[in-house]
Model the fold of this input.
Amino acid sequence: MTTAGAEPGHIDIGKVLRDGLDIYKRSAVTIWVVTLILIIPVAIIQYFEQDTGSLILSLIGAVAILILELYLTGSLVKVVKEAEEDGSAPVSTVGTLIGSVTPKLFPLLIMGIIVAICSYIGFFFLIIPGIFVAVVWSVCVPAMMVEDRGIFDSLGRSYNITNGNRWRMIGLAIVLVVIYLIIFFVAALLAAIAPIIGVIAFIIAGVLLYPY
Done:
């Protein structure tokens, strides 16, 4: 949640990427273990979902994946917070980091549903409103996890934090999305050759790239 740049309160995309890489390096082991624990179940669910084609399994899988992603995002927010505060690797154990999300899981889930519905409505009518919603509420999870805010307070806080930086954040998102798409396109090609290879590639790519 650093806002460094030439102008007060304005982020510098290059600095954000450099700072992110620095935190990633210092916290790599913790980040990888947390991500691995949470991303493997997602990969397994997706594998069996594709294999069976069951609607019920797909619905269960969608809910399970959403919950696991909330745990992953919330845990990684805690990792970044500790790394920024201490200037070193996180001191909390992996279990503590993951467990810190549990008390906030229900409000995180409700907030995630609100953001998803509003974003989908925005994208349905016009692309720009959907992007706007995604950007203005993009740091609602850190607001809830770090500042211990409620659902709507976190959404409001995210709106205020992103004010003046939204175009810069869209630029940052485009850079990261392009990288992700290239990597996961390769993983999809491998999955077409052999599903188990695709699962392994998905896990590796997810562990290395998702936290960044």
Observations:
- Residues 55-86 form the longest helix (32 residues).
- DSSP finds ten helices and no strands in the chain.
- Confidence is low (pLDDT under 50) at residues 1-8.
